[in-house]
Write a structure and sequence with these properties.
With 512 residues, this protein is mainly β. The protein is 2% helix and 54% strand. It is built from two helices and 39 strands. The longest helix is centred in the first third of the chain and has 6 residues, at 81-86. It is globular. It starts with a strand and ends with a strand.
Amino acid sequence: MINEYHMELEDDYLYIPVVTGAETQTISFYIKDHSEYRKIMELEIPVAEENGAGDAVSFFSSLPVRTWKGRELMISGQMTDTFIQGIGQGGEILHCIADYPEIHFAPNGGWMNDPNGLVYDGEKYHLFFQYNPVDKIWNNMSWGHAVSMDLLHWTQMETAMLPNEDGTVYSGCGIMNTEGMLGLPRDAMLFFYTCAGGRSGWSRERKFSQKIAYSLDKGRSLKRIKKDAVPFIINENRDPKVYRHEASNGYYMVMFLDGHEYAVLHSGDLKEWKVTQKLTLEDAWECPDLREIPVAGGGTAWIFWTPDGAWYQGRFDGYQFTDATGPHHAYANQCAYAGQTWSGVQDRVILMQWMRTHNPDQCYTGVMGIPREMELIPQKDDLRLALHPVREWELQKKEIFTGCGTKMEFEMNASHAVEVFTQISEASAVSWEIFGEKIEYDAENGILSVNGKKTDFGRNIREFRMLIDIEILEISAEQDTVNAAYEVAQKKNMGMIQILSEKNAKTEIYII
């Protein structure tokens, strides 16, 4: 093992060879300041064995280092010659070779979980996300970054925030600085995040707190403000979600405290925050969102959203969420998690959800679901939450097949993300086989089965929407008020699609 390696930084990115499954070592990175070395990064990295026996590189992680270009870098830790020989530099982000979905975002190598910092800047949609850039397992929590013009096709940018001496970078949110707060211009992007002190060796003596970062260049780079926005309250207090609230002439933050307890905070200037409410929701924990959602037919209603799809309807005045009813449940199974909504979008509320996939054959772990527009639909004396695929999906999809009867077949010869929309004349048993994935529904008992995995979808459903992409299947029903997602095995969006129904059915197939 080698404990120290020196090199001069000559390019924008440092390439780190990642061998998933190898023994993990704590690797520290130092920049030489005059005669001393200053730590700039510390990461837990799986290091290839000596001579690389059986240790093929899974992917190369591109760590941004342009800030220190032209300076000496020292890398310290338990390293092998094989690992050191694999380290490189370059001016571009390297891309790993994998089977990527057509329109479901998946990271360029590494582990991904919760969507963070979702903000629309007037031109592009920004998706930041919980990210481990140097392994396929949860660790080294950082913020990855991707952008899109249409919410369907994404480009991954360089990693936005890596762990530092204050802690790893847990979940948070983003807003545009429309009121010119914090002495920053109105077109600045502001990000609130949890600094998870004590979750790395480097931050061993620190505690969890909420901090602010900002961008003056449309999200291309983020600068962190050292001072806490909200100091430590209790245990792992985390996951701040912040919005402008015009009626109270200020901002509100909702965040997780501990157990099943959340806090609502209010601020007039984003600098000083006051806890205005603590509330306990027995079926919920972490990753809250609090939004006013449009109601079909007119009007709006406030909901408190939690990560597993449990949501509560109530009233909100900028300070307290009251008269809560629920929980109601948006998901029929447990694949989707930690959904968060975009800020900066004026005419709709758009939700992005992390899909808890394993992706064993890929260089990445985790994908994002199709962004969904949230709408409350009146039904009898209640409201049901619908999660419709974004209108960009509806505008871009092209119909390639329409059929009626009890048996329909179509063969796809080119790779596209696919929607299969089936309406049944009478509630009955129906089955689909899509690119080898088998889906069955029994109207009598309400059970939907995907490759043998059973989900209670509800009885007598007559309308299904299925979105299938590489290794991910999303199914919704009842005007998108019943939703489930599944990890599937198919590596290509090609092959046979077959629908069998006891009663007459109509099926439409679309592609993007």
